[in-house]
Amino acid sequence: MDKFTLSSQEIEKYGVEWLILELVAADCSHGARKDEFIRLFQSTTIKWGKLIEKAIEHKLLALLFCTILNNHLENLVPPKIIKLLKLQYDYTKIKQEIYGEEALRIAIQLETAKVPYVMTKGLILNSELYTDSGCRDMNDIDFIVDPAYQNDMKTVLKQLGYSPGYMDIQNDKIIRFTREEQVLCSITKNKMLGHVKPIKNPVVHCVYVGVDFSLTWSDSVVQIPIEYALKKRKKYTIGKNREGIFSFTPDMHFIYIALHLLKHAWSESLQLSKDSCNLTQFADIYRFWNTYSQEFGIEIQNIIQELNIPQIIGWVVGHTDKIFHSSLIEELGLNKYIDEEWLHTRITTRGKKLNIQESVRDMLSL
Questions:
Q1: Sheet holding 141-145: strands in order across?
Q2: What does the alpha-carbon distance between residue 44 and residue 11 come to, in Å, rounded to a whole number?
Q3: Nearest Cα residue to 248 out of 227, 234, 262
Q4: d(CA 120, CA 256)
Q5: Distance (Å, whole) CA 43 – CA 3
Q6: Which residues contact 202 (CB under 8 A, 6 or more apart)?
Q7: If we measure between CA atoms, which residue out of 310, 290, 291 comes closest to residue 302?
């Protein structure tokens, strides 16, 4: 585990509200981070409106609630705020349970149909990095399958009651994708149109499923063969009954979530902000490394070299280091590939190189 201290300059520059969220995201359940979280919470006048606004932007409301309770600090929180946080936590936990059950149903059907798949991100990360507490928010159930099995995937989803589109909660109906959206998706060929299924639940009204056929995106500067990636999978247990579902091996999943974060951070149509990437995504990188670094050993460095992505991964972990005071670049042996100029660079989907004046940490905290 890396060492941690907060400087007075950081407190002055970023403010206690943002630094509290960085501590929450990184896991301040023990050690120096726990001490610093308690100190900031007890000794500072917190601007609750600002804290809640930033927590919403970065999908940290439920985790903030868990952290406050675990440190027995709820008496320092205004009653209306703690009630809001608890409502979000309860919603997130119910959603995780429902999505977990649905993911297992889909997985069973895929395995019956002999479709090689992996489930990625949300549900797996919640189970592996957040101990199934319901603290990590998620948008949908994410799968990656070989594009050769696209029709099989569509069939499975249809059999289970899913349709392409998104839910109009207010009018209780599914909105179909426009012709333009359908054409655009067919052109990119790296993902399936999002699917949704209405469910009869007073809290969670529908379940969303996203399916990708690639680990990157159209016109990405790096492409990883899907056959290569799908060979690196294993079963994990999720849900109340701890049932098995395939995801990437930890080393491959670490690389994938780094690439997924980069996809949002380098998006040509978005600025580096709450609209493109968020603090939770960088926290996933940090927590993943702390959970699995001993298991990775030298193998993950070999995979990064084999795929020729040291600079790509280095950009992500370099900014993770700056946010969380960690040393992932050094531990991954990427020092010689990364410098400050590269960390202040982003490459758009069309290969255009742009310079970033501020750090990602600065942009996220705005």
A1: 117-120, 141-145, 206-212, 195-198, 163-164
A2: 11
A3: 234
A4: 9
A5: 22
A6: none
A7: 310
For the chain, the C-alpha Rg in angstroms (whole number) is 21
Which residues on adjacent β-strands are paired with residue 168? 173
Q: What angle do CA 54, 250, 118 make, to 5 degrees?
A: 90
The dihedral of CA 23, 26, 28, 34: what is its sign?
Answer: negative
Quote the DSSP letter at residue 255: H
User: What's the rounded Cα separation, in Å, for the pair 318 and 109?
Assistant: 40
**Contacts by residues 96-99 (CB-CB < 8 Å, ≥ 24 positions apart):** 96/123, 96/126, 96/132, 96/134, 96/136, 96/138, 97/134, 97/239, 97/240, 98/199, 98/201, 98/204, 98/207, 99/123, 99/138, 99/140, 99/141, 99/207
Provide the residue-wise pLDDT of the chain in tens; the chain has 366 residues: 446 778 899 999 999 999 999 999 999 988 999 999 999 999 778 999 999 999 999 999 999 999 999 999 999 999 999 999 999 999 999 999 999 999 999 999 999 999 999 999 989 999 889 875 679 988 899 999 999 999 999 999 999 999 999 999 888 899 999 999 999 888 878 899 999 999 999 999 999 999 999 998 877 778 899 999 999 999 998 877 778 999 999 999 999 999 999 888 876 444 444 457 899 999 999 999 999 999 998 999 999 999 999 999 999 999 999 999 999 999 999 999 999 999 988 876 666 778 888 889 998 998
